[in-house]
Known about the structure:
Layout: H1 5-11, E1 12-13, E2 17-21, E3 24-28, H2 32-38, E4 50-55, E5 59-65, E6 77-82, E7 85-91, E8 111-117, E9 123-128, E10 136-143, E11 148-150, E12 155-161, H3 163-166, H4 177-184, E13 187-193, H5 201-206, E14 214-218, H6 221-226, H7 229-246, E15 252-255, H8 273-283, E16 289-292, H9 314-328
Parallel strand pairs: 12-13, 12-14, 14-15, 15-16
Antiparallel strand pairs: 1-4, 2-3, 4-9, 4-11, 5-8, 5-10, 6-7, 6-9
Helix pairs in contact: 4-9, 7-8
Amino acid sequence: MKLNFEQISKITQGAVEIQEDDGVFSFFRFRKEEANATNKSIARCTAGIELNFRTDATALKLAVDTSCVDTPRSFFAVDVFSDGFFIGCIQNLDDADCVGDYANKTYPTGSFDGIFSFPDGNKHIRIVLPHSLICKITDIELIDASFIEPIKKQKRLLAYGDSITQGYDSLHPSNTYAMRLAESFDAELINKGIGGECFKREIAETAKIIETDYITVAYGINDFTVFTQEEFRENCTGFISVLAEKYKKTPIFVITPIWSTLRGAKYKFGEISDVDRIISEVCTPFNNIKVIHGWDLVPHEEKYFGDLYLHPNDEGFEHYFKNLKKETGI
Length: 330
Protein backbone atom coordinates (compact mmCIF):
# COMPACT_ATOMS: atom_id res chain seq x y z
CA MET A 1 0.00 0.00 0.00
CA LYS A 2 1.67 3.19 -1.22
CA LEU A 3 0.30 6.07 0.84
CA ASN A 4 -1.34 9.02 -0.92
CA PHE A 5 -1.86 12.64 0.11
CA GLU A 6 -5.23 12.01 1.76
CA GLN A 7 -3.85 9.17 3.88
CA ILE A 8 -0.74 11.14 4.84
CA SER A 9 -2.88 14.11 5.86
CA LYS A 10 -5.06 11.97 8.14
CA ILE A 11 -2.18 10.34 10.02
CA THR A 12 0.09 13.39 10.40
CA GLN A 13 0.26 15.28 13.70
CA GLY A 14 2.12 18.46 14.60
CA ALA A 15 1.80 20.10 11.16
CA VAL A 16 -0.41 23.05 10.23
CA GLU A 17 -0.03 22.33 6.53
CA ILE A 18 1.08 19.50 4.22
CA GLN A 19 1.94 19.93 0.56
CA GLU A 20 2.48 17.38 -2.20
CA ASP A 21 4.57 18.08 -5.27
CA ASP A 22 5.00 15.22 -7.74
CA GLY A 23 4.72 12.60 -5.00
CA VAL A 24 6.98 14.41 -2.52
CA PHE A 25 5.39 15.42 0.79
CA SER A 26 6.45 18.59 2.63
CA PHE A 27 5.35 19.42 6.19
CA PHE A 28 5.00 22.83 7.84
CA ARG A 29 4.78 23.86 11.51
CA PHE A 30 3.95 27.51 10.90
CA ARG A 31 1.33 29.40 8.97
CA LYS A 32 2.68 32.02 6.55
CA GLU A 33 1.96 34.92 8.92
CA GLU A 34 3.84 33.20 11.78
CA ALA A 35 6.81 32.38 9.57
CA ASN A 36 7.02 35.99 8.44
CA ALA A 37 6.99 37.14 12.07
CA THR A 38 10.04 35.08 12.95
CA ASN A 39 11.81 35.55 9.60
CA LYS A 40 14.04 32.53 10.23
CA SER A 41 14.37 29.80 7.60
CA ILE A 42 14.93 27.23 10.35
CA ALA A 43 11.20 27.52 11.09
CA ARG A 44 10.71 25.19 8.10
CA CYS A 45 12.26 22.20 9.88
CA THR A 46 9.97 19.32 10.86
CA ALA A 47 10.33 19.49 14.66
CA GLY A 48 7.46 17.80 16.49
CA ILE A 49 5.86 16.38 13.34
CA GLU A 50 5.02 12.68 13.35
CA LEU A 51 2.83 10.08 11.66
CA ASN A 52 0.63 7.90 13.89
CA PHE A 53 -1.49 5.05 12.60
CA ARG A 54 -2.66 1.49 13.10
CA THR A 55 -2.04 -1.13 10.43
CA ASP A 56 -1.47 -4.84 9.85
CA ALA A 57 1.51 -4.21 7.55
CA THR A 58 4.48 -6.54 7.86
CA ALA A 59 6.98 -3.80 7.02
CA LEU A 60 7.46 -0.14 6.18
CA LYS A 61 9.38 1.18 3.22
CA LEU A 62 10.36 4.81 3.75
CA ALA A 63 12.46 7.28 1.77
CA VAL A 64 13.23 10.90 2.72
CA ASP A 65 15.05 13.88 1.30
CA THR A 66 17.11 16.21 3.51
CA SER A 67 19.03 18.08 0.82
CA CYS A 68 17.49 21.42 1.80
CA VAL A 69 19.37 21.86 5.07
CA ASP A 70 19.40 25.65 5.56
CA THR A 71 19.92 25.23 9.33
CA PRO A 72 22.93 25.30 11.66
CA ARG A 73 22.65 21.52 12.22
CA SER A 74 23.00 18.89 9.48
CA PHE A 75 22.63 15.67 11.52
CA PHE A 76 19.22 14.02 11.60
CA ALA A 77 17.23 10.90 12.40
CA VAL A 78 13.76 9.65 11.45
CA ASP A 79 12.61 7.40 14.31
CA VAL A 80 10.23 4.46 13.78
CA PHE A 81 8.26 2.77 16.59
CA SER A 82 5.87 -0.17 16.74
CA ASP A 83 3.52 -0.30 19.75
CA GLY A 84 5.87 1.99 21.62
CA PHE A 85 9.02 -0.02 20.93
CA PHE A 86 11.85 1.54 18.94
CA ILE A 87 12.20 -0.43 15.68
CA GLY A 88 14.96 1.59 14.04
CA CYS A 89 15.68 4.83 12.25
CA ILE A 90 16.99 6.47 9.13
CA GLN A 91 19.94 8.66 10.11
CA ASN A 92 23.11 10.20 8.74
CA LEU A 93 25.36 9.55 11.74
CA ASP A 94 26.20 6.80 14.20
CA ASP A 95 25.12 7.50 17.77
CA ALA A 96 28.26 5.80 19.08
CA ASP A 97 30.47 8.32 17.30
CA CYS A 98 28.75 11.30 18.88
CA VAL A 99 31.07 12.25 21.68
CA GLY A 100 32.39 15.69 22.53
CA ASP A 101 31.14 18.58 20.42
CA TYR A 102 29.35 16.62 17.68
CA ALA A 103 26.65 19.22 17.13
CA ASN A 104 28.54 21.63 14.89
CA LYS A 105 30.17 19.07 12.62
CA THR A 106 29.00 18.63 9.03
CA TYR A 107 27.13 15.46 8.09
CA PRO A 108 25.97 14.17 4.68
CA THR A 109 22.51 15.17 3.54
CA GLY A 110 20.37 14.21 0.55
CA SER A 111 18.30 11.09 -0.17
CA PHE A 112 18.03 8.32 2.43
CA ASP A 113 15.80 5.28 2.76
CA GLY A 114 15.12 2.26 4.94
CA ILE A 115 12.92 -0.81 5.34
CA PHE A 116 11.54 -1.64 8.79
CA SER A 117 10.01 -5.04 9.64
CA PHE A 118 7.08 -5.23 12.06
CA PRO A 119 5.68 -7.96 14.33
CA ASP A 120 2.64 -9.93 13.14
CA GLY A 121 -0.88 -8.62 13.65
CA ASN A 122 -2.30 -5.12 14.08
CA LYS A 123 0.04 -2.57 15.58
CA HIS A 124 0.46 1.15 16.30
CA ILE A 125 3.16 2.65 14.08
CA ARG A 126 4.77 5.96 14.92
CA ILE A 127 7.19 7.78 12.60
CA VAL A 128 8.91 10.84 14.10
CA LEU A 129 10.42 13.33 11.64
CA PRO A 130 13.67 15.23 12.32
CA HIS A 131 13.79 18.31 14.54
CA SER A 132 17.13 19.51 13.18
CA LEU A 133 16.51 20.19 9.48
CA ILE A 134 13.96 20.18 6.66
CA CYS A 135 12.79 16.66 5.86
CA LYS A 136 10.50 15.66 2.99
CA ILE A 137 9.01 12.21 2.47
CA THR A 138 9.68 11.02 -1.07
CA ASP A 139 8.22 7.52 -0.69
CA ILE A 140 6.20 5.71 1.97
CA GLU A 141 4.77 2.24 1.50
CA LEU A 142 3.21 -0.27 3.88
CA ILE A 143 4.09 -3.82 2.83
CA ASP A 144 1.23 -6.39 2.85
CA ALA A 145 -1.14 -3.91 4.51
CA SER A 146 -4.89 -4.37 4.22
CA PHE A 147 -5.73 -1.17 6.13
CA ILE A 148 -4.38 2.03 7.67
CA GLU A 149 -6.21 3.83 10.47
CA PRO A 150 -5.24 7.19 12.03
CA ILE A 151 -4.51 7.30 15.77
CA LYS A 152 -5.32 10.58 17.44
CA LYS A 153 -3.84 11.76 20.73
CA GLN A 154 -6.20 12.62 23.56
CA LYS A 155 -4.73 16.07 24.24
CA ARG A 156 -2.51 18.76 22.71
CA LEU A 157 0.64 20.54 23.86
CA LEU A 158 1.64 23.86 22.29
CA ALA A 159 5.36 24.52 22.84
CA TYR A 160 6.98 27.92 22.21
CA GLY A 161 10.70 28.48 22.54
CA ASP A 162 14.12 28.65 20.94
CA SER A 163 16.55 25.99 19.68
CA ILE A 164 16.29 23.87 22.84
CA THR A 165 12.52 23.58 22.43
CA GLN A 166 13.07 22.83 18.75
CA GLY A 167 15.27 19.96 19.91
CA TYR A 168 18.96 20.92 19.66
CA ASP A 169 21.11 18.79 20.22
CA SER A 170 19.23 15.54 20.65
CA LEU A 171 20.36 12.87 18.18
CA HIS A 172 16.81 11.51 17.96
CA PRO A 173 13.68 13.66 17.54
CA SER A 174 11.73 11.34 19.84
CA ASN A 175 14.09 12.22 22.72
CA THR A 176 13.66 15.99 22.87
CA TYR A 177 12.10 17.35 26.04
CA ALA A 178 9.06 18.74 24.19
CA MET A 179 8.35 15.42 22.47
CA ARG A 180 8.87 13.43 25.68
CA LEU A 181 6.59 15.78 27.61
CA ALA A 182 3.87 15.54 24.97
CA GLU A 183 4.09 11.73 24.97
CA SER A 184 3.75 11.67 28.76
CA PHE A 185 0.56 13.75 28.44
CA ASP A 186 -0.73 11.57 25.56
CA ALA A 187 -0.76 14.85 23.66
CA GLU A 188 -0.14 15.91 20.10
CA LEU A 189 2.86 18.22 20.07
CA ILE A 190 2.66 21.51 18.19
CA ASN A 191 6.31 22.54 18.31
CA LYS A 192 6.84 26.26 17.75
CA GLY A 193 10.48 26.18 18.85
CA ILE A 194 12.85 28.09 16.57
CA GLY A 195 16.62 28.14 16.84
CA GLY A 196 17.93 31.60 17.71
CA GLU A 197 14.50 33.04 18.56
CA CYS A 198 13.64 35.40 21.43
CA PHE A 199 10.53 36.69 23.16
CA LYS A 200 8.71 38.50 20.38
CA ARG A 201 5.19 39.91 20.60
CA GLU A 202 4.59 39.34 16.87
CA ILE A 203 5.00 35.57 17.21
CA ALA A 204 2.12 35.39 19.69
CA GLU A 205 0.02 37.93 17.76
CA THR A 206 0.24 36.20 14.37
CA ALA A 207 -0.44 32.70 15.75
CA LYS A 208 -3.92 31.38 15.14
CA ILE A 209 -5.70 30.32 18.32
CA ILE A 210 -5.89 26.52 18.49
CA GLU A 211 -7.45 24.11 20.94
CA THR A 212 -4.72 23.09 23.35
CA ASP A 213 -4.62 21.60 26.83
CA TYR A 214 -1.18 22.84 27.84
CA ILE A 215 1.31 25.49 26.72
CA THR A 216 5.02 25.73 27.44
CA VAL A 217 7.18 28.80 26.81
CA ALA A 218 10.98 28.64 26.96
CA TYR A 219 12.83 31.70 25.69
CA GLY A 220 15.49 33.83 27.34
CA ILE A 221 19.00 32.63 26.53
CA ASN A 222 19.17 34.34 23.12
CA ASP A 223 17.54 37.44 24.60
CA PHE A 224 20.34 37.54 27.20
CA THR A 225 23.00 37.80 24.50
CA VAL A 226 21.23 40.52 22.50
CA PHE A 227 19.14 42.90 24.62
CA THR A 228 19.41 45.17 27.62
CA GLN A 229 17.28 44.33 30.63
CA GLU A 230 14.82 47.09 29.74
CA GLU A 231 14.43 45.83 26.18
CA PHE A 232 14.06 42.26 27.41
CA ARG A 233 11.35 43.18 29.91
CA GLU A 234 9.39 44.96 27.17
CA ASN A 235 9.70 42.03 24.74
CA CYS A 236 8.87 39.45 27.38
CA THR A 237 5.84 41.43 28.55
CA GLY A 238 4.60 41.81 24.98
CA PHE A 239 4.72 38.08 24.22
CA ILE A 240 3.40 36.89 27.58
CA SER A 241 0.51 39.37 27.72
CA VAL A 242 -0.71 38.44 24.23
CA LEU A 243 -0.41 34.70 24.87
CA ALA A 244 -2.13 34.90 28.26
CA GLU A 245 -4.98 36.91 26.76
CA LYS A 246 -5.48 34.38 23.96
CA TYR A 247 -5.40 31.39 26.32
CA LYS A 248 -7.01 32.65 29.53
CA LYS A 249 -8.17 29.20 30.68
CA THR A 250 -5.17 27.15 29.52
CA PRO A 251 -2.33 26.22 31.91
CA ILE A 252 0.86 27.94 30.69
CA PHE A 253 4.26 26.81 31.96
CA VAL A 254 6.99 29.39 31.41
CA ILE A 255 10.45 27.81 31.71
CA THR A 256 13.41 30.03 32.47
CA PRO A 257 16.81 29.20 30.91
CA ILE A 258 18.60 25.99 31.85
CA TRP A 259 22.25 25.84 32.92
CA SER A 260 24.89 26.77 30.38
CA THR A 261 28.50 27.91 30.40
CA LEU A 262 27.25 31.40 29.56
CA ARG A 263 27.03 32.14 33.26
CA GLY A 264 29.60 34.84 33.91
CA ALA A 265 29.70 35.87 30.24
CA LYS A 266 29.73 39.63 29.70
CA TYR A 267 26.83 41.06 27.72
CA LYS A 268 25.06 44.41 27.98
CA PHE A 269 22.15 42.61 29.67
CA GLY A 270 24.14 42.03 32.85
CA GLU A 271 23.80 38.82 34.90
CA ILE A 272 22.05 35.79 33.39
CA SER A 273 20.24 35.24 36.69
CA ASP A 274 18.29 38.43 35.97
CA VAL A 275 16.61 36.67 33.02
CA ASP A 276 14.90 34.35 35.50
CA ARG A 277 13.98 37.26 37.79
CA ILE A 278 12.45 39.41 35.04
CA ILE A 279 10.46 36.51 33.55
CA SER A 280 9.08 35.74 37.01
CA GLU A 281 8.08 39.36 37.56
CA VAL A 282 6.39 39.62 34.15
CA CYS A 283 4.39 36.43 34.70
CA THR A 284 3.25 37.22 38.27
CA PRO A 285 -0.06 38.96 37.32
CA PHE A 286 -1.37 35.97 35.35
CA ASN A 287 -3.20 33.28 37.34
CA ASN A 288 -2.92 30.62 34.63
CA ILE A 289 0.88 30.91 34.34
CA LYS A 290 3.34 28.87 36.40
CA VAL A 291 7.01 29.83 36.17
CA ILE A 292 9.37 26.85 36.25
CA HIS A 293 12.93 27.79 37.15
CA GLY A 294 15.05 25.96 34.59
CA TRP A 295 18.59 26.36 35.90
CA ASP A 296 18.69 22.96 37.63
CA LEU A 297 16.56 20.93 35.19
CA VAL A 298 19.74 19.60 33.53
CA PRO A 299 22.89 18.71 35.54
CA HIS A 300 25.64 21.34 35.41
CA GLU A 301 28.12 19.23 33.45
CA GLU A 302 29.31 19.62 29.85
CA LYS A 303 28.81 15.89 29.17
CA TYR A 304 25.03 16.43 29.11
CA PHE A 305 25.27 18.89 26.22
CA GLY A 306 25.80 18.14 22.53
CA ASP A 307 27.80 21.30 21.97
CA LEU A 308 29.32 21.11 25.48
CA TYR A 309 27.90 24.43 26.62
CA LEU A 310 24.21 25.10 25.84
CA HIS A 311 22.11 22.52 23.98
CA PRO A 312 21.32 19.20 25.75
CA ASN A 313 22.17 15.85 24.18
CA ASP A 314 19.83 12.86 24.54
CA GLU A 315 20.96 12.17 28.10
CA GLY A 316 20.62 15.83 28.99
CA PHE A 317 17.09 15.90 27.58
CA GLU A 318 16.25 12.84 29.70
CA HIS A 319 16.97 14.91 32.81
CA TYR A 320 15.22 17.96 31.36
CA PHE A 321 12.03 16.02 30.64
CA LYS A 322 11.83 14.12 33.94
CA ASN A 323 12.51 17.18 36.08
CA LEU A 324 10.20 19.38 34.03
CA LYS A 325 7.38 16.83 34.26
CA LYS A 326 7.67 16.87 38.06
CA GLU A 327 7.55 20.65 38.10
CA THR A 328 4.37 20.79 36.02
CA GLY A 329 2.57 18.67 38.59
CA ILE A 330 0.62 16.85 35.89
